[in-house]
Amino acid sequence: MPRRAFVADLGKAVEGVSIAGITDVQTGGDDGEFTFQCESADGKPYKISALIPDLSEYPSSHTCMLFAPDDAPSSVASALSDISDSATAKTVLQVLELVSRKLESTDADGDKQMLDSQADFGDSEMEDEDEDDDDFGEDEYFPDDDLAPKVALGKQDNGSTPEGFTKPTSAFRHRIRSDLLTAKAHGFKVGHLGGLMDGLGSYVSLSIRIAKLGISQEAMRAWQVEPTEYLILIFQYPNGYKSMDSMKAYDPHTARRNFEMRVGISTSYKPTMQEAIQAFTILSKDEEKRRETESQTESQNAHHKGFRNSFISRPLNELLRERFPALIHYRYNGMPWHGAEAFYNDHYGTNFAHSSLGLDGKYLDPEKISAAYPPIVTADHIVESHTQEHSLPLVGMQFVLRHFVRCTEFCLICFSKMSDELQAIKPYVCENPLCLYQYMSLGFGPSIEHEILSQPKVVDLLISFCYTQSRGGTLKDFPTGLSLMVPPNAAYEKDPSAQQAQNYNYAYNSTPEQPPTVTDPIRPQPVRYNSITRELIFDNPADKCPFRLGDWVIIRLKENHGQPLHCRVTETTFFPTVKVAVPITPVTVDPNASNNQYGAPPPPPTPAKSTKSVTPAYSTSANEFRDASFYIYNQNFDDLHDYHKREAVYSLLELLPSVAEMKQYLTRRAQSPLSSWIDRLPPSALGILRWIIASNRACIVQVEDSDVKGEERLYGMTGWTQFRFAMGAPDKERRFIKAVRDTSDRLKLKYPTLFAFHGSPLHNWHSIIREGLHFKDTAHGRAFGHGVYHSLDVNTSMGYSGYGGNGYTWPTSELKIGQAMALNEIVNAPNEFVSKSPHLVVAQLNWIQTRYLFVKTNHTHYAAPSSGTSGELKPKAFIDQDPSVTPRGASDKLIIPSHAISGRRPASDSSKLPAKRRKGAAGTSISNPIELDIDDDDKASIATLEEDRAIFDDEDIYVPQSQLDVDPLPTPNSLKGKSKSGGFLSKFMGSKSSKPLTDFEPGTLDYSKLPVLQEPAFAMPGATKRLLNDFKDLLKVQEMTPPHELGWYMDPSQVENMYQWIVEMHSFDATLPLAKDMKAKGVKSVVLELRFGKDYPMSPPFVRVIRPRFLGFQQGGGGHVTAGGALCMELLTNNGWSAVSSIESVLLQVRMAMSSLEPKPARLDTHNSRMDYGVGEAVEAYIRSCNVHGWQVPAGFREMAYGGATKEGPAHPY
């Protein structure tokens, strides 16, 4: 295990190391920290601290931070900062060796440390810094070192250059074309970014439209994807393209350094360069969760464009990173995918002989896959290929499809196969408590905040179902593994209203579970409580305080023991006096309602005056301490008996505020999660709420009462709240459709399906939406055979939905659910049912598909009119039903809108489909209600760009070596005379003409009218060296990226002074007001000037617009451009600047700022006759902006901005 490996390595180092200048290695105070003494070149020892923040990644991909002591000179601190960048994935001993070498430490004999020849160091670390200043391996690249790839560690391909890139030989380019053509031939769209054919760092993307994956519309809705969107897999090759042959030769650690993958969704078939870079940027867990929440919100926005994470991207990316390289090795030992995955799970963390791989038959057995999936989902290139030259991108994409389309078949954490009996439309975790803990702690699954804000009624419904089942004594699945701390069960013993229902009607021929006998109950502890000051006082100050800050407690006053007060401890400093927050009183229901068997409305909850601040039933006017007792939330939920687990679940749910209150809190505090409501929500109650939402495996979407178009609301169920309802695996719809087709063809049916009600008591629905409809348990007897019971009469199902009900519903629910029923679509073959009278009993589960969930509410705000049909609208496009088996609803015969049923569309939409498919789609011919493969790639797909079609050209393009070799340290003069268009496209496309993808023309800017500064007197060697390195980085990015994707251009032949750069911004989104203004004025680019100071990179550059002039903020302009042309961005001040930021990242963020529409879009000043901004007005505008926002102006800013002068004078007209 990673932590064990770190402890072992550190233990060896503590025992003693023979590394020059390194002594006294000790374990640090924090997890992952260690310290050591290091003697520098000047002979003085320094105590250095090292910290590995995430030991779970040790020693494969962890980062290591090094800290110098306060008395260390700046040279040592700077060297340690550089070493931190190079210490990634180094063991403890390798880090010590690296520090010794970089600080030029010597041992007692004066010998310097020599690196271990077997150590896994890159070439950039082996170079002598005095020999060559070109040390890119140690420079930070923003946001990831993708386009300026570092040296590959470990074994390299034959033909790799010393810098770690791959020589673009004819054979190399042929293999790329072969691999990508193979992927294209298998039905995927192919895209690329960067210097793919030049052997440089690059990205390859494979994509496929969601509509081609055989996923039902219900699953698409649950997964928040659209059929027209693309599932995209991005491959990153930081050191040049790697084939499957390379992957087979790599160990997993080396493979990850040469090959990474990311999964996402986009409206286009490939990401932009910026999106690809961002996809591989390593984020903190909190930031990653925040972006995922934003993606969930954006995915519901019809206007959202661009690459985003899918609902399952995070676990899939983890699977690809940690397991895919090893699984490839197992595949080539004869195992299919499922065998390789099972072998990995069985042998993870063990020492096994590779020679025995695959000898066990269970790992070699072929996998049984549902025939309902389309061939592209089940294809296996490794097995089906007739040659041994396999396409790595294709194999990777097929692996992703296996886990994306079939995601509900695998645990989201350990990826083990789930039970075949589980039929869920959303993925979840297996029964291992550790998986549930990681699922919750890592933030996988839906965001509870997003669900509350977007679907409050559904959240209310889910909580109500769980509460009813737990209060009824039938809840069997629990949130174990989360280590929830709850009150001990003794805290509820004297609360009669909190007891579980004790009726015998909830299950056929069974009795409810009785509470277990407690031999050693926990006793309450005495205390005195003042309800006015909210203080607890203990009689014996010598005792130890029983609380910790933030603990939750239950307080019961002696005079009103039946009224528990739940509150959070807010202060313990002045013990024996302890302060608590405003107490919360649980809202409960009358226990006399427990015998309500037929769904009658339960009595109102008590006390129900307010859930925000429930008024206690005793007098609180006296400012005095009263006798009381307390229990602490210190009982681990996992250790409770099942009876008491149910008791804890419903008792904590009674503490929750209503969903409307939670939504109001989140609306008022837009950036705060629900967990920030610390004095109102106990962590254990919040954990149970999250478990309820995350464990829901059905797709439930409320049908609004205001559905004026009648596209989703069903007619005939007046007085019932309606929800669109779908359950089952993602391929369940296809299996259902196949059953409909087969039966319809066999029986020559005119109406191949019918609709019928299924009623079940409220306490069953929590399980139904997680397990699906089945008949494993006998609830009401089986007088008419084994199967799922249905009825064409709503009254019959209403009787069953109230049968055995315990009458309890969640007290703070706004829906106040009394009954629930489902409307199912069933294959219309009653003669083949188990029974067709008086009930329809269907044993074939593939013949049943849920469509609607109806809920009878007892809240006037949510309940529709109870009688009459005047408030209902009949849908314009509806499903033709068999007249002999048309179900009757609460107010009339049901009319079901065609839009609400998967695969059927209103007639108004049918005209948009090809003629040969209109008939079935419109619903006029029920014999073929849903097309399994309605996909015309030529008409529905986005056109492939010319640059991506070009890579399939068979001609062998020879790239001269002189064009690939870059000077080790470029200077402005050394680049003069070279081609200005020598980027990727010109190298690859040669003289072939193609339609330009941008109207920008490089090299057309007249530099004679621009400000030209001489190298300033303040130029410092350190700043000059960094600027030269940044300059070379920028040129590499510019050469590798197509101009229309990059969006900026710098002419290297025009750079005479490293402290002044001219950059043109171009190719803005044509829909932006700025782009429209530029087009109207004939402006091809926005000319920027970057000026650097002597303290760079510790101080930010000065970035300003030279031309054209923009409208100022006061004139209605935006884009973060001030009235003087300076950029108003915190990034470019001391407050927001970081020394590790690259100029490429600065340009990217400046471009994003100019493209921003908030608070106002950037606009050009079309009336000002003066063309260029002057540097003087830009300086003053920059300083004004800093003063307004409270940002710090960099020291020596004026000197830097004026190119060495302290103010603008005649010599500096610009």
- Helical percent range? 25-40%
| Helical segment count | 37
CATH class of the domain at 1007-1202: Alpha Beta
Q: What Rg, in angstroms, do the CA atoms define?
A: 34 Å
Spatial order of the strands in the main sheet?
Answer: 10-11-14-13-12-15
**What is the approximate shape?**
globular
pLDDT under 50 segments (min length 5)?
107-164, 299-303, 503-510, 591-615, 863-870, 903-939, 955-994, 1206-1214
Through-space gap between termini:
61 Å
Number of strands: 27
The CATH superfamily label of the domain at 1007-1202 reads: Ubiquitin Conjugating Enzyme
What order do the helices and strands come in, and which of them pair?
Blueprint: H1 2-15, E1 22-27, E2 33-39, E3 45-51, E4 65-67, H2 74-86, H3 92-102, H4 123-126, H5 170-185, E5 189-194, E6 202-209, H6 217-223, E7 230-237, H7 244-249, H8 252-258, E8 260-266, H9 273-279, H10 285-299, H11 313-322, H12 324-331, H13 337-347, H14 375-378, H15 381-384, H16 392-405, H17 433-441, H18 448-454, H19 456-471, E9 485-486, E10 525-530, E11 535-537, E12 552-557, E13 560-571, E14 577-580, E15 626-632, E16 635-636, H20 642-653, H21 659-668, H22 683-694, E17 699-702, E18 721-726, H23 732-747, E19 753-759, H24 762-771, E20 788-790, H25 794-802, E21 817-827, E22 840-842, E23 848-857, H26 907-910, H27 915-922, H28 937-940, H29 946-949, H30 961-964, H31 984-989, H32 1021-1040, H33 1043-1046, E24 1048-1049, E25 1060-1065, H34 1073-1081, E26 1086-1091, E27 1102-1107, H35 1143-1155, H36 1175-1189, H37 1197-1201
Antiparallel strand pairs: 1-2, 2-3, 3-4, 5-6, 6-7, 7-8, 9-16, 10-11, 10-15, 11-14, 12-13, 12-15, 13-14, 17-18, 18-23, 19-21, 20-22, 21-23, 24-25, 25-26, 26-27
Helix pairs in contact: 12-13, 18-19, 19-20, 19-24
Domain UBC core: 1022-1192
Biased composition (Basic and acidic residues): 285-294
Biased composition (Polar residues): 157-169
